[in-house]
Structure formats: structure tokens, C-alpha cells
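User: Good morning. I'm curious how iron/sulfur cluster would be positioned relative to this chain. Could you predict the structure with it bound?
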Amino acid sequence: MSEQERRVYLHRLGCPKLDVDNDLVEGGVGQLGARLVDSSDDADTVIVSTCAFIGDAQQEAVEAMLEAVAWKELGPNRTVYVTGCMPARYRSELAKEVPEVDGWFGSGETAELLRSIDAVQADALLNETTSKPSDHPGRFNRDLEDVLAALRRVEGKTTAYLKIAEGCDRRCAYCAIPTIRGPYQSRRPGSILSEANRLLVQGVREIIVTAEEVNSWGRDLGDGSTIETLLPKLGEAVAKHDGWLRVLYTHPPLFSESFVQALADTPALVPYLDFPIEHADDRVLKAMGRGTSWDFMQRWIDLLRETIDGIALRTSVIVGHPGEGVAEFATLLKRLDAARFDRLGVFRYSSEEGTRASKKEAVSEDKAISRADEVMELALDHATDWYSARIGQKVDVLLETVEEKTLLGRSVWDAPDVDGDVLWSGEGSPGEIRRGIVTDAEPFVLHVRAAPPSMET
Ligand code: SF4
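Assistant: Good morning! Here's the predicted structure, ligand included:
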């Protein structure tokens, strides 16, 4: 690293999976001897980490890129790099349109980014010079799997995502992720378990398993690994630290009794599961290429609720997809109302270039907006009942922050950023997992008082 210590600002956009990639970038940049700063005002290098999943995210990424380019013009010796899914999807077009950017790196090209910052230090850090780049900018380099994972620094964080795989082999008609992130690529079990232990030793209390879809994990490794073999081992590691294990991005079309049993047999697993149905009308599920039916998914909803006591099921749906007429939407509402998911999110269909659905006529934007509103109304109705029914119940809470002298946290039923919050009263401090009693509730907020010591265990 040059005499003058480099000061790097990482502008984070995107999803939990990209969040993990960003941790590797920060860890790597730090170990190159650069200093991470909290704003471009104090930086001489800006890295913009981008999402390209849907139009809105791409818009946000372009704005952040142009802001960084404008910042670059305002001072000498300034550098701008763009990472993540925009380069993985549009590198050649972007390089032509925004030549001021000094380098474009897919989410699987962290090693190449570090080399661009300081080739000598990076080769020393990655203790090699010649690893062949991965076959897709979104896929990680198998040779560097462990050395890159070891770069991750999460001190001071109570929660960390653990990415168990990259890419996706499904072909949902509306989704560009297989193009952006490439074919499914499982991380090796040993690498995942070592990372989990490093996170727990660094003080993380909640590990959140993530991937584009977790059910296919291990199938491409050819060593008998499956998600059913991985989760109980991960749970044991987390249980040793009295932590929480949470699973996001399951893939309902791939559910099986062995998977549900593995969830039930996994120590430290919170009674919560992300079960994204995307829709509930069979004609629309067919148009989406989901390869499943409502009856098939209903079966697992019932079995999960029978098998895992007090489980909270989160789901998300897409409205306005080509093929969703008035009748199909009515079916969606009727089945959502009957299933009463504990957490319900909705997205409006976004026509994505290169996807099969983009060649079909979608529902008008106005209609999609009003349908999304109807789903959110239903979600609020259900939430009102769900939250008031929690009053008086015991609940475990991960205490996270203090705001205006109030301890805030999340219950076992709340994933970060998408679900509800807990206002905690009584003994406790951030980073602790405590048991409490729900004293009051309103939609998306639980008021919880610390339980007496006799109830802590
Ligand atoms: S499972 Fe479908 S929606 Fe999910 S990432 Fe894969 S292709 Fe996209």
C-alpha cells in the first residue's frame, strides 16, 4: 500500500447475500492496510456495491454510481469501483456508458477487486497469484472459497448472514438471478461450518442461513451433502454459543418430509421460516414456471405448523405477473386469507430483460399497485390479530440497540429489516438473548417485559 494510507468508503446496496460479499470486501480492504471510512467525504476510494434484481434496484444503483463519479471529479487521485450484480449483469454496457469508473467486479470477483486496489498485498493476502477467475462474475472462485471467507469481520454485530451457496438452477419466468449470479454453486460444508464458528467466536448471536434458495444446497457437491445434513450440524455449532439459527429463502417447490424433519431436528433453530410462495393460483404459478401447485405448498404449510411448535411462517407474493387476471388474483387473496401467514410481504411484478415473462403482457401498473394494496390490507388485518394474540405469551428476544433510553430488539418471530420489532423493558443489554412476557402489542411491535429469573430457563 502506498505511503499515503488509502481510505475506502463502501456504499452498500442490495440483499443479504450481497451483504455477505460486502463483508468480504471490507475485511479484505482492511487487511490490505487501507482504512475503511464511513463516508465518501473522508475517502479517496469509493466502492459502490450494487443490486440488479429489478428495475427499481437498478435505478438506485445507477444513481449511486453517478454520484460516485461526480465525487471523483471533485478531487485528485480518487478511484471508483463498482461491484455486485450490476457489473455481473451489464459489465460491457456499463463500462462503455460510464468510462470514469476504474473497475467493474461481479459479486464473485472480490479477489480481482482487491488486486486492483493493491496487487502485491492482495497476492500476499490470498497467498497465491494465479487462481483462475470463476466461470461467471456472480460465482465465487472455489480455490479461494476459504481464504476469502476468512476475510470477513463482524465484530460488534449481533446478527450475521451465512451464505451457503451462490446462484440458482431454477428458471422462474420472472427472475433474472440465474443470469446475474450463475448456476447453483454450493459452498463446501467444512467452509460453511468454519465460517459459522468464526462468526460465533466474534460475538454473533444470530446466524441467518441464506442463498438464492437453500433447498438445493449440496446437490452439486456430489459427496452426499444435502440441506438436511447441513442444518443440524450448523444448529449444534450455534447451540454451543446459546445463539439463534434462522433460515431464509427456502424453496417451497422443493420441500420434502425429510427437510421438515431436519428443521425440527436442528438445535437452536428459531420457530420461524421464510416460505416464499410467490403466488397461490395454479395458473399463475404455472405462468411463473414455479413447477408447483397450491395443494403441494399447502401440504407443507400444514406439516410445518404441526411439526414445529409455535412456528411463524413468512411468505412473499408477486402481484401483476403476466397471466394474473381478476379470477387468479381473487384466488390469491382467498388462499392467503385462509393460510393466514404470520408474516406477509408483497412485490409488484417487474418486467426484467431476458426473462421469459418479459415477453408476455403484464397487468397494468395501476392494477398491480391496487392489488399490492389489497394484499397489504390483508397483511395488516392478519397482523392486528396475530399481535394481539401474543399478549401474555412468553417470548425470547435478541436485544440489539438502545434508542432514546429504550432497548430495542427482535423476537424469534422476526427476521431483520422485513418483520417487526420489540420494545423491551427491564434488565438487559444489546447482544443478549433474554426471555420476556408480551405485555402489549400493536401491528409489527411487541412490548415485552423481562421475565422473572424463574422463567428464564
Ligand atoms: S428460485 Fe426462482 S425466484 Fe428464486 S432466485 Fe431462483 S429463479 Fe429466481
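The longest helix spans residues 365-388. The domain at 391-455 is CATH 2.40.50.140 (OB fold (Dihydrolipoamide Acetyltransferase, E2P)).
Let me know if you'd like a different ligand tried.
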